[in-house]
Structure formats: C-alpha cells, structure tokens
C-alpha cells in the first residue's frame, strides 16, 4: 500500500510507531496530486517545497499533537499566511493574508502539514463554480461549495481537509465523494480568518476517510468530551429514522441508501424507529434561505461598493434586490430559528441519534451545479453537529451516503456513535 492510500488515523499510527515518516507521506501525496489532479482539479495552489520542508521539520521532532506529520488541505476561503487565499474570485487573485486563520494555526500547532489550497465556489457563496470534478466520474459534480476539499480527500490526494458550511456546502460533498465529513456544532470552532456568508450559519468542518480521522481533528480542536467519551455499543442504540419535512425532494438512490443503512443497523442490534420533526420545524429550510440571503447582504456590501464591476451578479444581487428579503422577513426567520433550537434537544428523550439523508441522491451530472442543499439546511439552521457517512453506490456507480445528527454540543457523543455505526453502514 502506498502512503497516500492510508487514512489519517492509519498514517498517524505509522508515524508514531516509526514505520512511516511525514516526508514520505507528503511525497506520496504530492505524487498522487501530480498524477490525478490534471483530471480532478481539486487544488488551486500547492507548494511542494513548503510542504516537504515542514514535513522534514516534523520528522526531527517528537509528536506535537494528534495531527503530527499529517498533511491537510484548506478550502480557499480560509486564510493562510504562506499561500494565497483567492476565494476563487477575480477580486482576490494573488491575495496574501498576513496570518493564518485560527483553524489553520490550530492544525499546524497540532503537528499538521499544510499541503495546499483547494478549489471552492466563489466566496463559498455563489457565482463562479470550482473547476473541480467528481473523481469517480468527472462528468459529475463533486458538490460544493467545498468542492476541492471533498474531491481531494475522496481521491486520496490528502488524508484530511477543511471545508465550510452555510447551507450544505460541507456535508453534501462528503456524500458525493464517498468520504466522511463532520460539521461541528455552530460556534465551537473559531471562524476567524474565514470568509463569512451568513454569520449566524457559517460553520467550519473537516473531511477524512474514517470516523477515526474526524476524531483526530476533533481532538486537535479540543472539542468538549473528546478523550472522555466511552465507546458506544451498537446493540440497543436508539436511532431515529428521519425523512424530514423536505422528503419530497428525495431521489430513489437517496431513499435506498437511507433504508439500507436502517436495515443494517437493525440487523446489528440497534433500535431504529420512525422520527418526525414537529410541525413548527416544517419551514426551517425556508428560514435558512432567508437568513443566508439576508445576512449575505452585509457580507458582500463592502465588495459591492468597492469592486462591483468584478463582483459576480449573483453575489451583487444580495445588495440589490435580494429576493425581496426585508428586515421584517429576516426578523421573522430569526424568531422561528430561535424557537426551534432549544426545542430540538428535547426531542431526543426517546432516541440517541438521527439518521437522515445528506443529499437527495447521487452527485448530479454536469459542473454547472453543485447539487441541492435541501437535506442540509434544516440541520444547519438548528446549529447542530452533523456527520456524513458513506453507504454504498447508486445506479450510476456514484457514492451515496447517510447523515447522522445529534443535539447541540454533543459533538463527541456523535463521533462515538458514528464509530459504532460505521462498520455496519459503510460496508
């Protein structure tokens, strides 16, 4: 097995045991990128010399943290001091931030090696799409807006990568690329140095190829409960099968994956029961859209004023018509979200975790779209942690997944439950 084929957790163990060096792992990843990225186009910037120099330094030191010697990718809406942050926008080509975003600084302090910047939908918001293609079938989208990060981890260019989510920009690419993705509880990971779209929704997350990979990064970010949560037994675990209020948008492949996961869990001893959100939650998808667009006006007003001629019309519209959103409609949306968030945790008296779709189905054909975020928006506006997990392939041979959801600040518990569920669901 080549080093690039190792998961992050496998590589971490090999480095700690002296069976692998960080330099060998980084070299293997760079060779994989050279071989595959002309087709996949996941990366905007890669600096081999910089990454190799950092890897050699890591090999001279004892383990600095859970990410010691592991290369990681960074979505190019997140600042890096030694690589450009272009936002995939004509306005920011060649832009060099003065310092790393908080998440990059934490990953480096935990021993991680910055490998490069991954392509993204413009400002992780709209406008220009990433050039990235689905590595399983390049005629299909890898999802977005975290397009490059999802494809890079899925195609084994790098074991870990950062993404972001305002609607479904992180969880959906995980499903489309057949990998694991984790969106923590809103606010538990600093967003300093990351481009904002909607400040009350934007969340930073990460990708890996196993639950153990996601847990490594969660340890680096010192999420509450990490290292203290005991292993979860699958037998007796109470799983709520949630089709959600947007079920009419499901596709056959998405429904089949959800039911397959439920059946596999039941056969392994979990208790799977139907779960429905109360009527008060039925408009949350629309609420997320109003908040996203309403807050988007403030996020793009500076660029609209200073660089309107270079700002994509789709983004400029936030500062012009903005779908008729007013302060009244935005206030009403906030009120619905604020009412539903505290009620959500109370729904878990009879279940431990929610099982629901991460996307309608397989990745759509064409690069003009990144897919539909409808199966993500409810959970994003609720501020809850979400985890995407592969569950087979659809009729086009593309990955299909499921999504696990827990109450706010139950991030460590969600990772522990996912660790128990993965060997049954992802087979």
From TrEMBL:
Name of this protein: Amidase
Domain named Amidase: residues: 25-415
Domain of life, per lineage: Bacteria
Chain positions covered by the region annotation Disordered: 126-152
Pfam entry (one): Amidase
PANTHER family tied to this protein: GLUTAMYL-TRNA(GLN) AMIDOTRANSFERASE SUBUNIT A (PTHR11895:SF151), TRANSAMIDASE (PTHR11895)
InterPro entries (alphabetical): Amidase, Amidase_dom, AS_sf
């Amino acid at each position: 097995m080549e080093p690039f084929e190792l998961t992050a957790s496998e590589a971490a163990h090999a480095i700690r045991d002296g069976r692998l060096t960080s330099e060998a792992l980084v070299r293997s990843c760079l060779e994989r990128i050279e071989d595959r990225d002309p087709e996949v186009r996941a990366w905007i910037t890669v600096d081999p010399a910089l990454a190799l120099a950092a890897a050699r330094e890591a090999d001279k030191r004892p383990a600095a943290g859970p990410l010691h010697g592991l290369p990681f990718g960074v979505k190019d809406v997140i600042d890096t001091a030694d690589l450009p942050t272009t936002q995939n926008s004509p306005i920011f080509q060649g832009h060099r931030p003065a310092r790393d975003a908080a998440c990059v600084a934490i990953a480096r302090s935990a021993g991680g090696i910055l490998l490069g910047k991954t392509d993204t939908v413009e400002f992780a918001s709209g406008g220009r799409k990433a050039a990235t293609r689905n590595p399983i079938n390049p005629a299909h989208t890898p999802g977005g807006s975290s397009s490059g990060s999802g494809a890079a981890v899925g195609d084994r260019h790098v074991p870990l990568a950062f993404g972001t989510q305002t609607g479904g920009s992180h969880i959906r690419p995980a499903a489309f690329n057949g990998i694991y993705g984790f969106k923590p509880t809103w606010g538990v990971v600093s967003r300093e140095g990351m481009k904002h779209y909607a400040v009350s929704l934007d969340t930073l997350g990460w990708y890996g190829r196993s639950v153990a990979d996601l847990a490594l990064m969660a340890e680096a970010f010192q999420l509450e409960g990490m290292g203290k949560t005991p292993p979860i037994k699958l037998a007796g675990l109470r799983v709520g099968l949630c089709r959600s209020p947007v079920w009419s948008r499901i596709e056959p492949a998405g429904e089949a994956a959800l039911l397959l996961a439920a059946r596999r869990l039941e056969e392994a001893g979990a208790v799977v029961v139907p779960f429905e959100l109360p009527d008060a939650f039925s408009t949350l998808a629309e609420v997320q859209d109003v908040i996203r667009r309403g807050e988007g006006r403030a996020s793009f007003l500076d660029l609209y004023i200073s660089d309107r001629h270079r700002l994509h019309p789709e983004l400029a519209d936030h500062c012009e018509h903005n779908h008729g959103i007013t302060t009244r409609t935005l206030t009403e949306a906030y009120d619905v979200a604020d009412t539903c968030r505290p009620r959500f945790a109370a729904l878990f008296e009879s279940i431990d975790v929610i099982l629901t779709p991460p996307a309608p189905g397989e990745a759509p054909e064409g690069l003009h779209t990144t897919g539909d975020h409808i199966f993500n928006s409810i959970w994003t506006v609720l501020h809850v942690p979400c985890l995407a997990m592969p569950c087979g392939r659809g009729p086009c041979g593309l990955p299909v997944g499921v999504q696990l959801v827990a109450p706010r600040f139950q991030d460590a518990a969600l990772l522990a439950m996912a660790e128990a569920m993965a060997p049954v669901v992802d087979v």
